[in-house]
Amino acid sequence: MRSTPRIPDAIGRARGGWMERGALLYEGKAKQVFATSDPSLVIIHFKDDATAFNGVKKASIGGKGAINCALTTHLFDAVAAAGVSHHAVRRLNETDLLCRKVEIVGVEVVVRNVVAGSFAKRYGVAEGTPLATPLVELFVKSDALNDPLINDDAVVMLALARPWEIAWMKEAALEINRVLCDFWGGLNISMIDAKFEFGRLDGRLVLADELTADGARLWERGTGRKLDKDVFRRDLADLGETYRELYRRVFGS
Ligand SMILES: Nc1ncnc2c1ncn2[C@@H]1O[C@H](COP(=O)(O)OP(=O)(O)OP(=O)(O)O)[C@@H](O)[C@H]1O
Ligand SMILES: [Mg+2]
Asked: Is the pTM of this model over 0.90?
């Protein structure tokens, strides 16, 4: 991928300037969140860092940030076309996404189509076992607690989300899952599971954060070859090469 110059943002231009990064508000394992001159907007920078097991395993993968930023932008467009609103305003350059600043809900929403990962371990079911219907699970968004599984009543009790928010997120997650399964299916890839984060914005909820192969399991149909971060977690292949191949399959170059 060639490097592209900073593109003037429509909103930034309307206010007579470039949308530049301001103060670093938050640095996570895979992204940085920067303030902008507009308090309602943030710039999300996708880093080249890969981490697994809550940051215990780390590496820098050249080009990963740009690939994840491109995938997120592309997949957000796909879910928006299906009527699900999200936080992204526009891509500013290869690695930076201008987004509406939201209050992230402290619950991660996982949709599973096929048994894998923690579900397989927790219930002793073989990885690869198809589920009869997509299943939604909720996890507390807390690295300190290792993102534990939580049920709806406990989410409400701990004031992580209101009952209507839980219902809304579950329905939205299933809709996003349908869109993404169709998208990946068209490329002969099965989406086994995926994690979504939602944010509060003007009294409603929107899909936030990212849609990448860091937060989903993608298995090539026929071969079962893994095209997601499990490649890194389990040392199955080179993550950079795997992500570059995924990029080529989506964007064709
Ligand atoms: N529109 C947004 N406004 C504010 N924060 C956001 C927005 N979208 C995503 N975030 C948050 O920005 C952070 C991105 O960083 P990153 O994904 O690297 O974090 P992380 O290491 O996964 O840790 P964690 O997600 O547990 O904080 C996340 O905390 C995410 O919830
Ligand atoms: Mg994250």
From this structure: yes
